[in-house]
C-alpha cells in the first residue's frame, strides 16, 4: 500500500529537473541541482532517522524515481543536526508481529538492493552519527565524506546482543577487508571520524557541509567523460558478489532474521537497550 507520504515523495521527484526543489515530505527531502542533475536526498525522520518501514519505503521509492528520471548522481545525507541515522528503528524489532517484522525486513532488503546496485554515482555525506543501519547506508554508497570530527560510525550490533547480517558484513568487508571487519564487528566497534578515515571506512573528513559538497562534486566529476553504461556495468561487476548473495538468499535471510529476533532473550535485550536510550 502506498502511504500519502510516499506518494508526496514520488510525485515531487517526478517533476522535471528544471529547478532544485524540496519534496515537502517530512521523511525524505529531495533537491536536484538543475545544472548538474545531482540529487541531494536528505533523511528527516525525527528524532534520529530511525530506519522504520515507512522511511525505508520512502528511500526506496526515492532511489527508484531518481533513476527513472535520469538524475546524474545522488548524495545521501540527513537534515537532522548531528544525526546521519541511528540505524534500524529498534521499536520496529521489539515486540513486532511476524507480519510486521517480515514487512520491515523485506523493505530493508529492497531498499539496500536498490541503493547498492544503482548505476548512479552515489556519495554519503555523513553529517552526524552513523551507527549500525546508518553505517550500512553510508557504506552502500560509493564515496563517503564525513563532516566534522565528533561523530562515530560502525556496525555495533554485537553490543546490542545482535549480529550484523551477512550482507551488512560483506558490505564492510568490501571496504575495509576481512581482518578489520572481523575485529570491528566482533567487538561492535564504533569508529571515531579519525579512526574511520585511517582505516578507509570513510574517504574524506572535512570541516563543513560546503566542503563536503565540493568533495562530492569532485567525485562526480571523475565520471564526466566516462560513458554511463561502462561505469554502471563496472560498478555492477565489482559489487556482484555481495549483491548476489542477498538476491539469491532473501527468503533464507528473512527466516534467519525472524527466528533470531523473536527469541525471548533477544527481545529482552532489545527492550533493555530501548529503555537505556530513553533514560539518557
Ligand atoms: C542466537 C542469538 C543471536 C541473536 C541475534 C539476532 C540478530 C538477528 C539479526 C538482526 C539484525 C539487526 C540489525 C540491526 C542493525 C541496527 O541498525 S540496530 C540499531 C542500532 N543503533 C544504535 O545502537 C544506535 C542507538 N542510538 C544512539 O546511540 C543514539 O540515539 C544516537 C547517537 C544515534 C543519537 O544520540 P542523541 O542525539 O543523544 O539522541 P538520544 O537521546 O539517544 O535518542 C533520541 C530518541 O531516539 C530514540 N532512539 C535512538 N536510537 C534509536 C533506534 N535505533 N531505534 C529507535 N529509537 C531510537 C531514543 O530512545 C530517544 O527516544 P526518546 O526521545 O527518549 O523517546
UniProtKB/TrEMBL annotation:
<comment type="pathway">
    <text>Lipid metabolism; fatty acid beta-oxidation.</text>
</comment>
<keyword id="KW-0413">Isomerase</keyword>
<keyword id="KW-0276">Fatty acid metabolism</keyword>
<dbReference type="InterPro" id="IPR001753">
    <property type="entry name" value="Enoyl-CoA_hydra/iso"/>
</dbReference>
<dbReference type="GO" id="GO:0005759">
    <property type="term" value="C:mitochondrial matrix"/>
</dbReference>
<keyword id="KW-0809">Transit peptide</keyword>
<dbReference type="GO" id="GO:0004165">
    <property type="term" value="F:delta(3)-delta(2)-enoyl-CoA isomerase activity"/>
</dbReference>
<dbReference type="InterPro" id="IPR029045">
    <property type="entry name" value="ClpP/crotonase-like_dom_sf"/>
</dbReference>
<comment type="function">
    <text>Key enzyme of fatty acid beta-oxidation. Able to isomerize both 3-cis (3Z) and 3-trans (3E) double bonds into the 2-trans (2E) form in a range of enoyl-CoA species, with a preference for (3Z)-enoyl-CoAs over (3E)-enoyl-CoAs. The catalytic efficiency of this enzyme is not affected by the fatty acyl chain length.</text>
</comment>
<protein>
    <recommendedName>
        <fullName>Enoyl-CoA delta isomerase 1, mitochondrial</fullName>
    </recommendedName>
</protein>
<keyword id="KW-0496">Mitochondrion</keyword>
<keyword id="KW-0007">Acetylation</keyword>
<dbReference type="Pfam" id="PF00378">
    <property type="entry name" value="ECH_1"/>
</dbReference>
<dbReference type="GO" id="GO:0006635">
    <property type="term" value="P:fatty acid beta-oxidation"/>
</dbReference>
<comment type="subunit">
    <text>Homotrimer.</text>
</comment>
<keyword id="KW-0443">Lipid metabolism</keyword>
Amino acid at each position: 500500500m502506498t502511504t500519502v507520504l510516499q506518494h508526496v515523495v514520488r510525485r515531487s521527484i517526478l517533476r522535471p529537473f528544471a529547478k532544485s526543489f524540496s519534496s515537502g515530505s517530512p521523511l525524505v527531502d529531495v533537491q536536484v541541482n538543475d545544472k548538474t542533475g545531482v540529487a541531494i536526498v536528505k533523511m528527516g525522520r525525527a528524532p534520529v532517522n530511525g530506519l522504520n518501514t515507512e522511511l525505508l519505503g520512502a528511500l526506496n521509492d526515492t532511489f527508484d524515481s531518481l533513476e527513472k528520471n535520469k538524475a546524474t548522481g545522488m548524495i545521501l545525507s540527513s537534515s537532522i543536526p548531528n544525526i546521519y541515522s541511528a540505524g534500524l528503528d529498534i521499536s520496529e524489532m521489539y515486540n513486532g508481529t511476524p507480519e510486521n517484522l517480515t514487512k520491515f525486513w523485506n523493505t530493508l532488503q529492497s531498499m539496500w538492493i536498490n541503493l547498492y546496485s544503482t548505476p548512479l554515482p552515489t556519495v554519503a555525506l555523513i553529517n552526524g552519527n552513523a551507527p549500525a543501519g546508518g553505517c550500512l547506508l553510508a557504506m552502500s554508497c560509493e564515496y563517503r565524506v564525513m563532516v566534522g570530527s565528533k561523530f562515530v560510525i560502525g556496525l555495533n550490533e554485537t553490543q546490542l546482543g545482535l549480529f550484523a547480517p551477512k550482507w551488512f558484513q560483506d558490505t564492510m568487508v568490501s571496504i575495509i577487508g576481512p581482518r578489520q571487519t572481523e575485529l570491528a564487528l566482533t567487538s561492535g566497534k564504533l569508529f571515531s571520524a579519525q579512526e574511520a578515515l585511517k582505516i578507509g571506512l570513510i574517504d574524506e573528513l572535512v570541516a563543513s557541509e560546503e566542503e563536503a559538497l565540493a568533495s562530492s562534486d569532485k567525485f562526480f566529476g571523475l565520471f564526466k567523460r566516462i560513458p554511463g553504461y561502462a561505469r554502471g556495468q563496472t560498478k555492477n561487476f565489482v559489487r556482484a558478489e555481495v549483491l548476489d548473495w542477498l538476491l539469491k538468499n532473501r527468503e533464507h535471510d528473512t527466516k534467519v532474521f525472524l527466528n533470531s529476533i523473536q527469541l525471548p532473550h533477544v527481545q529482552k535485550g532489545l527492550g533493555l537497550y530501548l529503555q537505556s536510550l530513553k533514560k539518557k
